[in-house]
Every structure is written in structure tokens, then in C-alpha cells.
Task: inverse folding
């Protein structure tokens, strides 16, 4: 289908035939903006302002302290967690929405290391990819020092080879934040378990964007982000999942009162709550958590239309179209696609690179109403990246058309070479 | 002055003469409600709904990812931290507003333990009070296990005696959440330093309510709460302070990317940021942090009227009045004040106890429009508590009059004995 798309008219027709087209109406998007950065900050759900105004003026303003019970604030990390569970192949009672991804990774990785030390004390390695999102590596580095273990970083292609009898935990991000390359979670899970290692997944660029089945993939722990494809708003709380076979084996070290068996007994000694409850720590930022609740609902709104499978189909069609139009219209401009061509290996964003000028091109596009983002390379193995995320809830085929069209204008006019687009750092 | 107050009329007159009376107008309080639980969840600032609506619809909705720079989201933990610094005797650049109190305590206590292990390796004790807020003890318990140290808990009166050469860190909450008893921070700080111990303070029930001078008190680390007297909204981010002499000595273990020297260089290895920056971990919940910003502004609004000193004077006058009216009007009902009588030893709430019925009395009062709260005792040393917090920004003298008046009605009518007010757990 995609290869036959050669005009704006073709894209308009694809949007008309899109079974998910009604979902865009759930969002309040700026007029005329082509937003291809929902993988960094999801768009504003139309229901969010009113729901939040009610939470602010009624629940906080009028209900005050009573709202912890009457407005269900206490239960919100679990209630939102149960909703997220439906998107990632987990079950009710296994997921919490709270804290940040980094903090949640600290909790679950620390539990994984305790389990590994107990069950396989000879294993001293946490294995990950050098190209993993850095915060995951920093947290792993901290916990390895704490537990007398070692963080081993390899290139993506070397994982299988590096997965030996010394590996206690395999820590991976499912979809790479730079390239969009996606692991085969089930295959990796099977491999890790055959080798005797635990699998910890970061779903930051997966949850809400690709189909996930943590149980089928033999995953052990997972964390993920609330403000990307879950549309929870800036810095929305993150989530964590613990396989029920692990949840009560050890304490996680952030043993705050919300994770106590009886937080309101105010006992001086810690007794962890049953199940996933012990992965709570302190009081959660309710306004941001309520926004996340609304955001997750936008993804669940796809359920009657085919759910994650339908979202995934559209996401792939959009990134395929992007690559197709690039090939058709931008040959000779030095841009190459670094995201995998194979649908099974690609998440929901598409990344380009260029020998130089990546930052300036992204800036020139933003000025022309196409918001993607730039990720700096390391000057060697990993090049500078121009990143364009599609969110099948609200990205249209015509958005892809216009994005490539303006990229073509920026390149062929040389507009990106204007000094005002000078090199600098950018934002997640 | 207080001892001459014998009528509603007297209280009305005190309100008229109150130099801070205009500040109540900064809040949107439910009509007719007497809210004496601002020590648990501060009231809604009148400016919050509009500021948050702008953040939601404009910054998130229209600005989208660009708002991390254009709306100053990145800098908000520091900017709000700098404001809080003015309330606690810290300097700009020393305070961050982020995460939860429990998580911040984990960061600073872990840094304190690393410093102690380095500077005084023989010291193996973290000393605290058995009556400290439990989450502080749970976090200390976790870190003591991690560092091969021991948590020693004593009753409040035994602190001086227990502060010996084995103590690495003294961990105290400045104002006790149950009794309202307040430590003399400077005296304790001097004592601890003479003994060679580091001082870590929890300011949950102090910041925004009592005058604080962390530098003068020779404090080493501090954490505090955003949703109580700082009026930051339900579960607002907390704050932390590190004395500049400590801030770069060690890493704290929650080494997420926001605490990296160059978060957007995306390096695989962690390099902590300079100064307080390394106490950041992951992305912060912006909507809740913006609400906290507005809340802190309500406290800063007192600066032209005398600031924290004026707020403290009024807070003491209000709790003194409460105790005076209780004595005058509730003798013989078995209620006794457990908060210190001495102004220098009392925070901003007043706590009562009764041999039985404390929970039911609080419930009966709530039903009659007086919101205080109940804190369960442990059946031995620490009795059940009826807790009434005053917030000098919005609590009026007449509120105290009506609260005691309704308490008198509830007690003398025996209304609290109605079975519908049965015993159960309550909320922070």
C-alpha cells in the first residue's frame, strides 16, 4: 500500500480510510503544527483540562484532606497501574503508576540483584547495551557498585554472545531511544532464561506504541514512562511491573511508608506490604498522576477499534510511509535512515542521520512547524540523529506527507545552513 | 493577650487587628469550613487554578516539547528550590524541589552515611527518635542495612544521653508529627557537632510554619514536604537541602540522568553534576511542581508583612488561644493537651489525647465542619491523638473559637459516642 502513495491526495485518502481516525479528536493539538515528538512528550488529551480543573478546584480546593479517601487519591497508583497493565500484557494488581522511570528502575533492578545474589551468587554481571538510554546505565552503575557487581556494556549485535553464565541480570530498553530499533522481547527473554539470567525491561518507547506481552515474553521486571505514548503530561509519573513470582521475595530499598503493610499504623519498624504494594515509597504527585490517568484513557479508547494491535498497524504504516517518501523525495541530500527497515524490528519512531547539520535541520524544520527532535551522537559509533516519532492516536498520513515535504524544502533550498540554526544541545 | 480572650467577639477583634489578615484572600477555602489540617494538606491558593490551566492548555497543549525550554520547566526544581531556601535559612543554589520526602531522605541520608564512613569509620549508629515519622525510620532502616550500620531509636528525652562517640548521623524531624513538639535546632546541632555526628533534619512540619535557619543551626542535610505548609497541592514534590561543604563529596545512589553533569550529552557513564545538581534523578512531574511554585509564593507573600517571623508569631498566638479556650471550656471532658505549653517548644499544631474516643471525636467534628485529624497511638507509650494544625496564612482567630465551641458541643452532648463514628484508620 505505502509504496503506491505518491501525493498529498493519496495521504488524505489514507486518513479517510483509517479506522482509528476518530481518535485524533481526543487531543487538543496546535493548529497547523505537525507534531512528530509524541515519543518525547505526548499531546494534550482534550479531557485533561476539565478533569484537572475539577481535581484542583473541587478535590483539592473543596475536599481538601478528605479527598485522599473520597476522591480515591490513595488508590490512584494502583488504579492507573491496572489500566497500564492492559497495554503491556500484565495483569491487574501487578503494575503501579508512580515516581520516575529512573527511580522505578532503581527499585526493580535492586530487587533483581537481590534475587540473583540469592539464587545464583556466582553471577556478577549486569549486561546491557552501550546505546541504552543513559539513565538506565547510570542507575545500573550505582546499583552494581552497591552490590559488588559489574556493569558490562556491549553493542547491540553482541548481546547473544555476551550472555554467558556470569550474567545475573539482562537490562534492556525494548525500543532504542535513538534508532527506534526494537528487540524481539520473547526471543531475548527465552535466551536470557535459558542462560539463567533475569530480564529487566525499560518500556519507555514501547508502552502505548507497540504490542507488549510481558508474561508471554518471560519478563521478570519492567519500568516505563508516562509522558511519552501514554500522554500523561510533562514529567508524568512512570510505572513499574514486577512478575508476581518475584514481588514478595525481597524488599526494594526505597522502603517508604506507602510501601508499608499498614502505613497508618505508624509503626517504627518497616514491614513491606503484600505483592506489588511494597514498590510504593512516598506520597505521589496527584495532579500529575490524574493527568496520567486521563492520558492512559486515550490509549484505552482504541480498545473497541482493535486496541494495541490496530495502533501498532497504523504506527508501522506511518513510519513505512515516512521512509518511502524520504527515498522518493530526498535522495541526494545525504540523509540516511538508521531505523530498521523490517517492521518487526522497528518501534514507533524513525531516525535519520547526516554527516553534519542534523541539529540545524531539526531547528529549521521546527521553525517551519514540523516538530521532531535531535539527539547528539558521540562522535564515533553513534552519529547525530534526527528523530521523528509517530503516535497512531493522533498522527495522520498527511502529517507525514507535510513533514517530508518541508524537509525537502529545507534541504533543497539550503535553508538549514542559515547561521541562526547553530549547534546546541536539545531536550528529551 | 490570649488569656483575655473569652468570646467570639474578642476573636473577631483579633482578626481585625491581625497584620496578616489580607493573606487569607490568597486562598480559596470552602464556605463555612473550619480547616485545621493544613499541616496535612495545605489549602488551595486562589492563583493555582489559572496558573495550572495555563500550564496545561498553553505550555503542555500548545508549547508541547518546546516548553521544556520556553516555559522554563527544566529549571523549575532549582527555581522553586531557591524560593524555599528563603524560608529555611538556606542560600540560593542549595535547595531542590523534587521527588518525595522519603526519596529525598534516601538521597541525603545515603550521602551522610558515605561521609560518615569516610570521615569517622568507627561510628556505626544512626540515632533517631522512636516517635519520628515512620517513613524516616523505614528509609534509615534500609540504608543502615545497606551500609552495615545500626539504627538506634530512643525516646525524645533520651537523645542527649544517647548521642555518643558511636553516632555517625543524628536523624530528627524538627517538629513531631504527632505531638507538635519542636526541637531547638541550634542546640541540637551544636550538641551533635561537638559529639562529631552529622545532623539530618526532616522539616515536614516546619517549612512555612516556623522560622528556620539551617546554616545558623549547623545543619548538614535537610528534607521537607511541599504539600503541607507550603500549600503545593496533593502529593506536591518535596525538597532537599545539602550544606555546600557536603554537596560534592559523594554521589547519592539515585544517579539518574537529571543529576548528570551533561544530561543531554547522553554519555554511557555517570558523571555527577556540580553542587546540588547531582541530587536530581529523573524527570519531575511538572504540573504538580508548578502547583508547588504557586503554593510557595503564598508563603513568600508574607515577606513584606514580616515574613516567617510574623507568621510564626501568629501561629503561636493561634495555638495558645486554642489551649486557652480548651482549658476554659472543656475541663472535665477527659481531653488533655500533649503539645508543649512553652512556645519555644511547639510547632504549628496542637494535639490532644483522651483515654478513649479520639477517633470518634475527630469524626464527629469533621461532620460538624471542623477538619482536624486523628493519629493512632501504639497502645503504650504513644496515645491516640486528635490533631489540629493552624496555618497563619489563612487560619483566623474565629476559626479557633468555632473549633473549640463545636468540640465543646460534641463532648457535652455526648454526640461523639454515636456508633456511626466507629474506630478506623485515617490519613496523613
Result:
Amino acid at each position: 500500500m505505502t509504496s503506491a502513495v505518491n501525493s498529498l491526495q493519496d495521504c488524505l485518502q489514507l486518513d479517510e480510510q483509517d479506522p482509528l481516525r476518530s481518535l485524533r479528536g481526543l487531543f487538543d493539538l496546535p493548529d497547523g503544527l505537525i507534531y512528530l515528538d509524541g515519543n518525547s512528550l505526548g499531546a494534550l488529551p482534550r479531557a485533561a483540562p476539565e478533569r484537572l480543573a475539577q481535581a484542583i478546584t473541587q478535590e483539592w480546593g473543596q475536599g481538601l484532606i478528605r479527598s485522599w479517601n473520597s476522591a480515591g487519591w490513595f488508590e490512584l497508583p494502583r488504579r492507573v497501574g491496572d489500566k497500564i497493565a492492559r497495554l503491556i500484557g500484565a495483569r491487574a494488581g501487578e503494575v503501579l503508576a508512580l515516581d520516575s522511570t529512573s527511580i522505578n528502575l532503581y527499585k526493580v533492578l535492586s530487587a533483581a540483584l537481590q534475587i540473583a545474589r540469592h539464587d545464583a551468587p556466582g553471577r556478577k554481571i549486569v549486561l546491557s547495551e552501550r546505546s541504552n538510554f543513559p539513565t538506565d546505565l547510570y542507575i545500573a552503575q550505582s546499583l552494581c557498585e552497591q552490590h559488588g557487581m559489574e556493569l558490562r556494556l556491549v553493542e547491540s549485535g553482541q548481546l547473544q554472545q555476551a550472555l554467558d553464565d556470569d550474567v545475573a541480570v539482562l537490562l534492556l530498553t525494548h525500543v532504542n531511544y535513538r534508532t527506534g530499533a526494537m528487540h524481539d522481547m520473547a526471543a531475548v527473554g527465552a535466551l536470557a532464561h535459558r542462560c539463567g539470567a533475569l530480564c529487566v525491561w525499560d518500556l519507555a518507547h514501547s508502552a502505548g506504541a507497540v504490542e507488549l506481552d510481558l508474561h508471554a515474553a518471560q519478563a521478570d521486571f519492567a519500568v516505563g514512562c508516562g509522558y511519552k505514548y501514554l500522554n500523561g503530561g510533562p514529567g508524568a509519573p512512570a510505572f513499574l511491573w514486577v512478575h508476581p513470582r518475584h514481588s514478595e521475595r525481597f524488599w526494594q530499598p526505597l522502603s517508604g511508608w506507602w510501601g508499608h503493610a499498614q502505613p497508618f499504623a505508624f509503626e517504627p519498624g518497616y514491614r513491606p506490604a503484600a505483592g506489588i504494594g511494597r514498590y510504593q515509597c512516598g506520597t505521589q504527585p496527584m495532579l500529575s498522576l490524574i493527568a496520567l490517568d486521563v492520558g492512559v484513557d486515550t490509549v484505552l479508547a482504541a480498545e473497541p477499534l482493535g486496541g494495541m494491535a490496530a495502533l501498532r498497524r497504523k504506527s508501522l504504516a506511518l513510519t513505512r510511509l515516512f521512509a518511502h517518501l524520504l527515498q522518493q523525495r530526498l535522495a541526494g541530500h545525504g540523509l540516511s535512515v538508521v531505523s530498521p527497515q523490517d517492521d518487526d524490528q522497528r518501534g514507533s519512531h524513525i531516525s535519520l542521520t547526516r554527516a553534519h547539520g542534523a541539529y540545524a535541520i531539526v531547528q529549521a524544520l521546527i521553525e517551519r512547524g514540523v516538530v521532531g527532535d535531535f539527539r547528539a551522537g558521540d562522535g564515533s559509533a553513534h552519529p547525530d540523529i534526527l528523530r521523528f516519532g509517530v503516535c497512531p492516536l493522533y498522527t495522520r498520513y498527511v502529517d507525514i506527507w507535510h513533514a517530508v515535504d518541508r524537509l525537502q524544502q529545507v534541504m533543497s533550498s539550503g535553508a538549514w545552513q542559515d547561521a541562526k540554526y547553530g549547534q546546541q544541545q536539545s531536550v528529551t
About this structure: The first strand of chain B starts at residue 27 and ends at 28. Chain B touches chain A through 90 residues (CB under 8 Å). Residues 257 and 263 of chain B are 5 Å apart (CA to CA).
